[in-house]
Design brief:
The protein is α+β, with helices and mostly antiparallel strands and 354 residues long. It has 2 domains: 97 residues, Phosphorylase Kinase, domain 1 (2-Layer Sandwich); 219 residues, Alpha-Beta Complex (Aminoglycoside 3'-phosphotransferase, Chain: A, domain 2), CATH 3.90.1200.10. 39% of the residues lie in helices and 12% in strands. The protein has 11 helices and 9 strands. A 5-stranded antiparallel β-sheet has the order 1-2-3-5-4, with helices on both faces. A two-stranded antiparallel sheet has the order 6-9. Strands 7-8 form a two-stranded antiparallel ribbon. β7 and β8 form a beta hairpin. The longest helix is centred in the C-terminal third of the chain and has 23 residues.
Length: 354
């Protein structure tokens, strides 16, 4: 059972009222038996994820973090409705069981979905899962194939043409993330002025519009515990939208730490992409382009964008800690990642032929 992703005790200050949750769910979902045992999954730095264990069924509850949050952030209802619409055409989206918009229940929007019982490849593979180099490569390619498959979804037929603005995505992202960085910057954070100027100057046109996940990583997929090469679910659809598929690939590449990366990169690693058999970043880009039948002369823009976007996300989280909005000491270290990511971006800019 240690292969299966496990929940732990609920963190202090993030407890749920079990009686309130139970009363709401039994009114919405038939057949729930007993009282829920509530645990919490430790992964993630954004929305909170809980395991609700009833006598006859396990459910997952997702809610925003406690405390003040921006009005447009952590839209639980939007995330749940995207999964609901995707599931008939992309069966790796979890099955949503209930969506709550009544703030009298928990003081926020939240949703409940099925629990996908399986292996989540986090920073390190479970010790019990011993894969050869060839098997690791097979798993890696299967995960990328599901990424390509998502980008091939007919979003209009799925009723998802309303979730994004479509054309002009690249320009909106560069302008939007640059603005967010300026607003979140603290005195101890890198400036990123040259990076933002380079991205603005080198912006390409969109190569297309499709459903993009915006956080597609190995630690957001669930593997079948009996057949770890089979992907049974893709999690965390909070940032899904309509956009450019190569921008989505750039986002994923930012998290793709390979075996020969430096020590700081290895410390930031959140998925086991360093293992023998895993593709390098260049191999990943080449494989994706071949499978998706897309082409680009130089991928530098998308790679640098992905690293910059990751820096903005880390800085936004660090800003919450710096200003006292959260006491999670883990977030105190995010400033080192932000400053390191500027160095990575500048090195790539120096070497770029764009």
């Amino acid at each position: 059972m240690s292969l299966i992703d496990q929940a732990d005790s609920v963190r202090e200050g993030e407890e749920l009222d079990a009686a309130v949750v139970d009363g709401y769910l039994k009114d919405k979902i038939e057949g729930l038996q007993g009282q829920p045992q509530i645990k919490q999954f430790s992964g993630g730095a954004s929305n909170l994820t809980y395991l609700l264990q009833y006598e006859n069924r396990d459910l997952i509850l997702r809610r925003p973090p406690f405390g003040h949050i921006a009005k447009s952030a952590h839209d639980m209802v939007r995330e749940a409705k995207i999964m609901d619409a995707l599931r008939p055409v992309y069966p790796y989206a979890p099955d949503v069981a209930a969506i709550c918009e009544d703030h009298d229940v928990m003081g926020c929007d939240f949703y409940v979905m099925e629990r996908l019982v399986g292996i989540i490849p986090r920073k390190n593979m479970p010790k019990e899962l011993s894969l050869t180099e060839e098997e690791t490569r097979k798993l890696c390619l299967n995960v990328i194939d599901k990424f390509v498959e998502l980008h091939a979804v007919d979003y209009k037929a799925a009723g998802l043409d309303h979730i994004g603005k479509g054309a002009g995505y690249v320009k909106r992202q560069i302008e939007g993330w640059s603005d967010r960085y300026v607003k979140a910057k603290t005195d101890d954070a890198a400036g990123f002025e040259r990076v933002m100027a380079w991205l603005k100057d080198k912006m390409p046109e969109d190569v297309g519009t499709c459903v993009i996940h915006n956080d597609y990583r190995l630690d957001n997929v669930v593997l079948n515990a009996d057949n770890p090469f089979e992907i049974i679910g893709v999690l965390d659809w909070e940032m899904a939208t309509l956009g450019d598929p190569l921008m989505d690939l750039g986002n994923s590449l930012a998290y793709w730490i390979q075996a020969d990366d430096d020590d700081m990169a290895q410390m930031m690693r959140r998925q086991p992409t360093h293992l023998p058999g895993m593709l390098t970043r260049q191999e990943l880009v080449d494989y994706y382009l071949d499978k998706s039948q897309l082409s680009v002369d130089c991928f530098d823009f998308y790679e640098i964008y992905g690293l910059f976007r990751l820096a903005v996300i880390a800085q936004q989280i660090y800003n919450r800690y710096h200003s006292g909005q959260t006491k999670n000491e883990t977030f105190a270290t995010f400033i080192f990642a932000v400053n390191y990511l500027e160095e990575r971006c500048l090195k790539l800019i120096e070497a770029s032929k764009l």
